[in-house]
Recover the amino acids of this structure.
């Protein structure tokens, strides 16, 4: 649906200017839609909650609808090792890709193949689905941060910790001419320039 292609842009505007958007919506509800106090409350709270809930429900259901099976097929079942007992339910199953990243970093899963090969076969090993982890990141990582932690001191602290690490650190993975780009190394002996 074409309407959902603009949803990420609208969400970014909401996250960037939450107070302005909320006050604007309050003004619209009060001046244009205020027929009764209950109607005012319905529009003020019901419409945003219903809209956001509908979008999240759409993301959750629509990404699962085309899937016929979540089982790992063929040799792919041997590519993934479940290292944590709490993930036993995923043995022989495709893992949601967002959780796979997290669990790999936390040593809860490992792979019997090189990571490049694993991610070249990502559609056979992982599920591309909207998960509870996405929802928590939207609520606490994005909306919560914009509403409660987004101030000059917090921004300065966050940026300083990342960008004041010195040129030696950034040169180790940016190399010459020290700007962000991307590439793929097919052999560990290849230089950054070749990649």
């Amino acid at each position: 649906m074409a309407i959902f292609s603009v949803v990420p842009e609208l969400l970014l505007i909401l996250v960037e200017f939450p107070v302005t958007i909320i006050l604007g919506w309050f003004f619209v509800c009060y001046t244009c839609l205020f027929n009764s106090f209950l109607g005012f409350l319905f529009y003020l709270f019901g419409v945003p909650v219903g809209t956001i809930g509908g979008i999240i429900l759409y993301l959750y259901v629509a990404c699962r609808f085309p899937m016929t099976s979540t089982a790992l097929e063929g040799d792919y079942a041997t590519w993934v090792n479940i290292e944590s007992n709490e993930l036993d339910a995923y043995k022989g199953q495709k893992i949601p890709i967002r959780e796979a990243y997290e669990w790999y970093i936390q040593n809860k899963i490992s792979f019997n193949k090189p990571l490049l090969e694993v991610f070249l076969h990502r559609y056979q090993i992982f599920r591309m689905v909207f998960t509870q982890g996405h929802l928590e990141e939207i609520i606490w990582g994005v909306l919560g941060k914009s509403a409660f932690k987004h101030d000059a001191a917090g921004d300065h602290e966050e940026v300083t910790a990342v960008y004041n690490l010195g040129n030696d650190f950034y040169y180790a993975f940016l190399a010459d001419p020290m700007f962000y780009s991307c590439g793929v190394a097919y052999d560990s002996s290849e230089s950054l320039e070749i990649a």
